[in-house]
Amino acid sequence: MTDNAEMIHEDGLPGHESQLEPKPEWQPRYSGSGRLAGKVAIITGADSGIGRAVAALYAREGADIAIVYILEDDDAAETKRIVESEGRRAITIKADVGSRKMCSRIVEETLTAFGKVDILVNNAGEQHPDKEITDITEEQLLRTFQTNIFGMFYMVQAVRPHLKSGAAIVNCTSVTMYKGSRELLDYSSTKGAITAFTRSLSENLIEHGIRVNAVAPGPIWTPLNPCGGASEEKLATFGEDTPIGRPGQPNEVAPSFLFLACEDASYMTGQVLHPNGGIIVNG
């Protein structure tokens, strides 16, 4: 684990998974088949929620994992334990993806530990609910964009020289990009940017044999929402407005990240998968 040399500011988000009840379900739902054997993946926001579930599934499929997180040391240590319990190697890197300098360090430490990078999962993100657009402070607006979309640019810029043909990038966008969110104006805006970034980057890198895709989860039970990322009113019925009628679990989203990272998706780039409980979106 690496200590930050710079001050990290975060308003209690994404929160500790270890303190959340009920606990999110991260456990892979099936036996591995070696689809990522010998691969190395960097996963941002991998200490909890969707990131932890992706790390667990990738490890089961044979990948070594660089676990990038911002605050929750205990959650990151638990994700590391989970990866190692699958027989794979793991390192934890405490860093803010909103800093270009730290993103370069993330890649450097991954290369030092594992010698290469095959997969980048841009999953880290933050959200802050506001009922009125006038309630969004300049600091919050800048911070949300810095983490959610600037961080993806910084991570790709840092890792790009080390990605070879056959590598994959998987970005985390959101159902809010497609249907909007009245309380998450800045967050949903960044998710729109992420989708456009995914489509554009896929065209930019395809001639180099690097695929770029995204996953757009619906309401998923992770620390992000109950620890301040959603209003109390929204939490009271969280996920109930989906056709399935409940929030999803992280291990119901992770298979989308696996599919896009492995050779099963060799003919897919610039695309978005939608594990969202049955919400119909176009795109």
From TrEMBL:
Amino-acid biosynthesis keyword on record: no
Q: Which residues fall in a compositionally biased region of kind Basic and acidic residues?
A: 1-26
What UniProt keywords apply to this chain's record, in alphabetical order?
A: Oxidoreductase
InterPro entries, per database record: NAD(P)-bd_dom_sf, Sc_DH/Rdtase_CS, SDR_fam
Q: What residue spans carry the region label Disordered?
A: 1-31
Cited PROSITE patterns: ADH_SHORT
Please give the Gene Ontology molecular function terms for this protein.
Answer: oxidoreductase activity, acting on CH-OH group of donors
- Hey, which family's this protein in? Belongs to the short-chain dehydrogenases/reductases (SDR) family.
Q: By its UniProt entry, which PANTHER family does this protein fall under?
A: NADPH-DEPENDENT ALDEHYDE REDUCTASE 1, CHLOROPLASTIC, NADPH-DEPENDENT ALDEHYDE REDUCTASE-LIKE PROTEIN, CHLOROPLASTIC-RELATED
Recorded protein name is: SDR family oxidoreductase
